[in-house]
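User: Before I run my own analysis I want an independent prediction to cross-check against. Here's the chain; please return only the structure tokens and, at the end, one sentence I can use as a sanity check.
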Amino acid sequence: MPPPDAPRDDAAMSGVILASTIICPICRTSKIEDMPSDACQHFYDCTGCGAVLKPKPGDC
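Assistant: Structure tokens:
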């Protein structure tokens, strides 16, 4: 158990998972990214082929 004056990790305490594996549907490059907890990420640039990925309708 951390000491009482240790900094809190609110995301860990709430059970929210902030890391996501993104797989490009074009080149199949996969990368683990930290997701923002206070906003939706509308676009992602694939590090493999440069494609701009967008969430599916209703996912964000």
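Sanity check: Residues 22 and 31 are 5 Å apart (CA to CA).
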